[in-house]
Amino acid sequence: MTSPDLPTELKAALDSKLRGFSRSDAAGRASVISQAYRGGGGSGTIRTEADALAYALARMPATYAAVTASLNALAEIRPDFAPKRLLDVGAGPGTATWAAAETFSSLANFTLLDANDALRTLAQNLVRGSMRLHDIAYERGEARAALAKTDAADLVIASYMIGEIGDAEQRAIAELMWAKTDDTLLVVEPGTPTGYARIIALRAHLIALGAHVAAPCPHDGKCPLQPPDWCHFSQRLQRSRAHMQVKGAEVPFEDERFSYVALTRVPVVQRPSRLLAQPIVNKVEITAKLCTPEGLAFTKVPRRAKADYARARRWRWGDPVMEES
Ligand SMILES: C[S@@+](CC[C@H](N)C(=O)[O-])C[C@H]1O[C@@H](n2cnc3c(N)ncnc32)[C@H](O)[C@@H]1O
């Protein structure tokens, strides 16, 4: 499993950019940017190098953790998946590229694209000293036009990106991303009802075009969850001192809620059920909420079934659960 915390090389690159950068200035900029996101706006408020750095400081650790958790789930289901080429759509500061490079040592070719100049410049500065990533290709431009010109890749990722484009455009971009996917497309969004709704719409649209779900769902059918419930997961990450200062946070960790879907061209052979919440443990039994190939299930594992109970105690929200467990 790849760690959800930023790799040492990336932390060092960020730290060196941060030298001499006022934390209160960064906090002010990060707050303006996050208010814009909360108000349904996009990354348009990120205009300067200082804005991009403030965004990276405040949000990159969490989006990195969410992408890594999604990639870990994919790698767990497909241990033989060894992508060579990556395409990171709406790459921003390069978050998903760093996460994919950490997860898949097979990756040798990295193409990123984004319309935001400040984030692109920051991404290029961050990879400059990296052995693995110093040679990335970062295309500048709107996703639709840039995707049309880009080569296909084994792994295509859009992380925290599709929420910045309108509904009709989301469908067009989803189709284009799928057309550029030789093997697997991963889309990650905030773990809110609206983030989930975007994932579920893209999922249905691409299944109709022949895609199969590798994770998190153990089926290609309709999502069994009914509103107000929604499918999302949670990843804990450590906060650095600078991260805490910029967020005005008091605890040295945060839990990032995210929704995701990994879609493949060829169906995955075995798709295990998945835990949709942290199981509830009491003295008598463990109750687990599972998405199964047959739909939603609340499984109870009694304490007296010692081996099963011991196994179920290790279950964590988001884990796959094999049939025999
Ligand atoms: C919230 S940021 C996420 C960045 C990065 N993927 C991450 O996970 O940290 C969204 C990114 O999508 C890019 N973006 C949004 N709409 C776009 C479009 N139509 N074409 C290209 N890039 C776009 C923004 O410029 C921004 O860099």
Automatic annotation (TrEMBL):
Domain of life assignment: Bacteria
One Pfam entry name: Rsm22
Statement: the UniProt record of this protein carries the keyword Methyltransferase: yes
UniProt KW Methyltransferase keyword: yes
Example GO BP: methylation
GO CC terms, sorted: small ribosomal subunit
UniProt-recorded Gene Ontology molecular function terms: iron-sulfur cluster binding; metal ion binding; methyltransferase activity; structural constituent of ribosome
Gene3D superfamilies in alphabetical order: Vaccinia Virus protein VP39 (3.40.50.150)
Keyword terms of this UniProt record: Iron, Iron-sulfur, Metal-binding, Methyltransferase, Transferase, Transit peptide
UniProt cross-references to InterPro entries, sorted A to Z: Mt_RNA_Methyltransferase, Ribosomal_Rsm22-like, SAM-dependent_MTases_sf
Protein name: SAM-dependent methyltransferase
Species of provenance: Bradyrhizobium archetypum
